[in-house]
Write a structure and sequence with these properties.
heterodimer; A: Pyruvate-ferredoxin Oxidoreductase, domain 3; six-stranded mixed sheet; 8 helices; 6 strands; B: alpha/beta; Rossmann fold; 4 domains; seven-stranded mixed sheet; 21 helices; 18% strand; globular
Amino acid sequence: MDIHSLNPQFSDEKTSLSIVLAGVGGQGTLVAGKLIGVIALKLGLDVKVSEVHGMSQRGGSVITYVRLGEKVFSPIIEAGTADYILAFEELEALRWSFLLKNSGTLIINSQKINPLPVLMGKASYPENISETLIDAAGKNAHIIEIDALSAAATIGSSRAVNMVMIGALSKFMSISAEVWDSAIREVFEEKAKLIPMNLQAFQLGRDLTE
Amino acid sequence: MKKILLGNEAIARGAYEAGVKVVSSYPGTPSTEITESIAQYERIYCEWATNEKVGAEVAIGASIRGARAMTCMKHVGVNVAADPLFTCSYTGVNGGLVFVAADDPGMHSSQNEQDSRNYARAAKIPMLEPSDSQECKEYTKAAFLISEAYDTPVMLRMHTRVSHSRSIVELEEPSDIVIRPYEKDINKYVMMPGMAIKRHVVVEQRMELLASDSAEKPDSVGLHRIIRGSDSLGIITSGASFQYVSEAVPDASILKLGMVWPLPEAIIREFARTVRRLVIVEELDSFLETEIKAMGILCEGKSLFTFQGEYTAQMIRTALSDSNAPVSAIPFMSLPIPPNRPPVMCAGCPHKGLFLALSALKVQVMGDIGCYTLGALPPTSAMDACVCMGASVGMAHGFDKATDGIDSKKTVSVLGDSTFLHSGITNLINAVYNQSQITVLILDNSITGMTGHQQNPSTGLNIRLQPAPAINLEALVASLGVTSIRVVDPVDTEDCRRTISEELQKPIVSVIIARRPCALITKGKGNPKERTIVDYAKCKSCGACIRMMCPALTQGPGKTPIIDSVSCNNCGLCVNLCKFDALSKGEK
């Protein structure tokens, strides 16, 4: 499959696509990264998914890099080179926004998870992060905000936020619904009873970006 | 069939396809998932060893008996396993024997960033360095073949970005497990001077043969690749750095080394001849550069790149090309600085109460390797030194002897159950034998926590979560001759303070076991129906509960606490800390 057909805006000489998944430990970014990896495999593309397993357990800043294309070398996404950033949390959108390339797309989940310095009253959570990012961004960048947490809550699971985010991302990529559907089934193969909920969450994410 | 695997999972797959019979390892980031993943292949015997030296020795024994065997560890684990490693280089193998050493440039989760390639050179064994998951699998299989063909242990060098990146792997059918016949051969396997003198000759001949075969058989032994580009710039590299180089300077000629020790001099010499400028790109030490310069070949390396941390494609682009750095859509400088999410002890973490007690006692704390190393940071700031696994007990004994016992009245050593069994125990025997007066705190949280919850000899389960004999820490410590043994609940900070104070005064070795399971494992979870409750009428806004930095307890209006009932584990530490009875464990 030609990598350029994955994104209508894809017109430069690049041969790979870089997707950043940024969130807080426990939000399901790792599973979302795995899912995009499966998509790449189904499309016959090369792919690298890089996770950072560090000292941070729950509540730490977690970042996953996914790169797909005809041939992918470095697993790391560097400043100004991300085609897409899925920010699962507002503060993490702020933290990792420097990775976005000129014509990139940043999808922000409006959820806020207070870091410890804020919980302890030693720092404050920046206000109006989405507006700040939209104001600061160059005119070729696309920044959208969605409420993935509320959407996930409507189907009864805050843990489905990751699939809502993936659903939103899918609207910006030219990949058929069947491929997404079968990839989600494959990723949750061993927890089959979670498949319907995740498919539903995926569809909610698509609807949010209508 | 193709599958997306972590580099570590691909090593395990390679071992499975190669017909490995025995794997024995101690966990350590970024190597842990290799052995965890081995556990899914039922035909392979695998285990968590008590430490890396033990794991290596089990693998050596299995190899001599004729089985293919593997032991996996993080880079600093090789220090622990170095003793058997250097001498099994002399004995050689029967069944193939592979050591996996996972380096951590950038120290994502390590106490130093030593370069394992130095071990291959020092121990005189071949080393292979894969750069993605497919190579992880292929090189593992090649490592077993090389091991048997050249009668040598082989080391695979991993890297955080290779271990923890997923990429596509072509799966193949596994070979049968073959146990080679074993014949007693004391000249090969009993390393006394008379035999070892002769084996050293064999070792040197083997390394010479490997060096020439690495150059003459680049596909089967050396695993080298030349990517021919422009002749104006040639780069010699390996492993993760190869990926950054390919990304950064796609037009350059690249010699990618698979076997990074011994080096294929003829190939390097020929490659150098064909390029006008030769640059060595390698993270950490100037290993290749030094060796290539010693061949009399002109090249650049550390004059362009740092000895520290991880490289990136952009770093290489900046050093070797004149292309501009990509411009971010959102300039960093125009944004407010986001507050960090610092690593902290989890809600309900049993280590927190104990460290609050140590902080209040203002004692000197000899620390160790585990989640509890976070006790060095605020709010407890209760640690003076932390060096390596098991060192806390020895360092406390050193404080004791340096001050003729005086400092033992105000010094404790702190280490976890798994770390104690790894190498703290030999230090404790030493302290008892040499009549120390130290106080040792064993934080028994019933698991190996920081590496992601592996079982150990005190947990009662093996790597496959089947029942296993559980070491009784009290009985073990008593059998070593420790006469003062106390057990406390770390959440009861008042009892911890009292007990530690009492033991510090005793002129003998004391052991205090602070016992409570990790809050992230099933038996450490609080009752979800039992919730901590705030009585705001009684709260004096003193801030004591907020200062302990529990992720489940946040500051509300007027310095009063708000409990997040989702993340609260109901450990009761905040209840114990409140002097005004404003916090209580709620009704069931």
